[in-house]
């Protein structure tokens, strides 16, 4: 039944992808693990196969899990509703989602314009030429000048990993002209930022992070128009990479609580950023809401809050101090990844961004001693006590 009013974000988060539950007589999404589906009507199955293989809807039988899975489809519809997108495609990882998107964009042009910094492996995938595409790295003001006749896609990430630099999506879209812009919005989630509203053609997430939110799913998802997502699903049907239904089930389960988790972690991150910025043992803190860190005024317009990832540099930035600091933490877990219930810390130059060459890393503002903190759902005072304790330990060395 059509709703008389357009439901708000919180309502969509609870109901999207679940509209048929009452008719089905269920109250939780059915988890369908079938790798194949019966095809008693061969002609109907053949028609459905032809449709699915091109990235279109099933026409009757789902035929085979790589082509379609109803549990994954439910999560995709839920996520698309939160991004204000017509459709979405879910993958077994964020990198699989990016790979399929790049392959789908390749027919429009084999050149990519991209803004640094971005997630280390995404940088590596573009720079390595592994997919037969070339890249021009630039800044958010240099996108227009970097465009070529064969540019098929512009790729940005905001907030950018790991410096939390905010990239002005509408500014990039204007420079890209008719070329589509893909925004990695992993750090923001649709709770804080919906890039399609700013004119982006596509939004991508490592769903491993905040969308999963509990550190137990590896997944990626890309959302956009019917036409784009169809092309991406075409690539997915041909190359594989569909998200496993168990992952889709967990992701869909998490959407109703996404805003609660994101807002709570953000409040704690804001408090920790304030504590760190006022501490003489800290040289630099990167967090969008700190003074001077949002020169384009994007908070409150493009993005509804700073999120819950922050980065900082210790005043003593030698490698031994960095290691001693991380080792002294008791509550905060040294680990890559982010957006989990628990707080994680990692040095990007040594781990996530080690695949980016040192000069490119430095030019993008990623210092050797930078630490990235993904704030979780613990009590804010306990987290500060843990950081404070580790600061005391390195101070006494
Ligand atoms: C983790 C991450 C990715 C890659 O996603 P995987 O799920 O690890 O493949 C891409 N972009 C950003 C911003 C990330 O944090």
Structural commentary:
The protein has 397 residues and is of the alpha/beta class. It has 2 domains: 9-257, Type I PLP-dependent aspartate aminotransferase-like (Major domain) (Aspartate Aminotransferase, domain 2, 3-Layer(aba) Sandwich); 259-395, Aspartate Aminotransferase, domain 1, CATH 3.90.1150. Helix content is 39%, strand content 14%. It has 14 helices and 12 strands. Strands 1-7-6-5-4-2-3 form a 7-stranded mixed β-sheet, sandwiched between helices. Helix 1 runs antiparallel to helix 4 and helix 1 packs antiparallel against helix 11. The mean pLDDT is 96. The structure holds pyridoxal-5'-phosphate. Residues 93-95, 119, 122, 157, 161, 184, 186, 206, 208-209, 218, 220 line the site of pyridoxal-5'-phosphate.
Give unreliable regions as ranges: none
Bound molecules: pyridoxal-5'-phosphate
What's the number of structural domains? 2
- The count of helical stretches stands at 14
The general outline is: globular
Helix content: 25-40%
The number of E-state strands comes to 12
The major beta sheet can be summarized as: 7 strands, mixed
In CATH, the homologous superfamily of the largest domain goes by the name: Type I PLP-dependent aspartate aminotransferase-like (Major domain)
The overall pLDDT average reads 96
Give the strand order, joined by hyphens, for the main sheet: 1-7-6-5-4-2-3
């Amino acid at each position: 039944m059509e709703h008389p009013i357009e439901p708000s974000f919180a309502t969509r988060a609870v109901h999207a992808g679940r509209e048929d539950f009452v008719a089905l007589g269920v109250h939780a999404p059915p988890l369908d693990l079938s790798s194949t589906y019966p095809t008693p009507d061969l002609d109907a199955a053949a028609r459905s196969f032809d449709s699915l293989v091109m990235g279109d809807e099933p026409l009757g039988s789902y035929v085979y899990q790589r082509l379609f899975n109803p549990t994954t489809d439910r999560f995709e519809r839920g996520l698309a509703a939160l991004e204000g997108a017509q459709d979405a495609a879910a993958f077994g990882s964020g990198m699989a989602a990016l790979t399929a998107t790049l392959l789908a964009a390749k027919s429009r042009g084999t050149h990519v314009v991209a803004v640094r910094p971005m997630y280390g492996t995404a940088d590596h995938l573009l720079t390595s030429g592994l997919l037969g595409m070339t890249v021009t790295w630039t800044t958010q003001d240099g996108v227009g000048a970097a465009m070529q006749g064969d540019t098929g896609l512009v790729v940005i990430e905001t907030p950018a990993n790991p410096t939390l630099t905010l990239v002005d999506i509408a500014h990039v879209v204007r420079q890209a002209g008719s070329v589509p812009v893909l925004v990695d919005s992993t750090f923001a989630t649709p709770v804080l930022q919906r890039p399609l509203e700013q004119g982006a053609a596509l939004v991508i997430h490592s769903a491993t992070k905040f969308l999963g939110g509990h550190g137990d799913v590896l997944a990626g998802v890309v959302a956009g128009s019917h036409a784009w997502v169809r092309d991406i699903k075409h690539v997915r049907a041909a190359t594989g990479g569909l998200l496993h239904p168990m992952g889709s089930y967990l992701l869909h389960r998490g959407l109703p609580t996404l805003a609660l988790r994101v807002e709570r972690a953000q409040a704690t991150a804001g408090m920790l950023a304030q504590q760190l910025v006022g501490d003489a043992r800290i040289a630099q803190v990167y967090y969008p809401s700190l003074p001077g860190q949002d020169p384009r005024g994007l908070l409150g317009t493009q993005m509804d809050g700073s999120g819950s990832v922050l980065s900082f540099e210790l005043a003593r930035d030698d490698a031994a101090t960095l290691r001693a600091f991380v080792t002294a933490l008791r509550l905060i877990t040294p680990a890559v990844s982010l957006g989990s219930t628990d707080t994680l810390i990692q040095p990007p130059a040594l781990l996530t961004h080690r695949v980016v060459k040192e000069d490119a890393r430095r030019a993008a503002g990623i210092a050797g001693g930078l630490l990235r903190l993904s704030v979780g759902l613990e009590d804010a005072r306990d987290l500060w006590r843990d950081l404070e304790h580790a600061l005391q330990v390195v101070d006494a060395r």
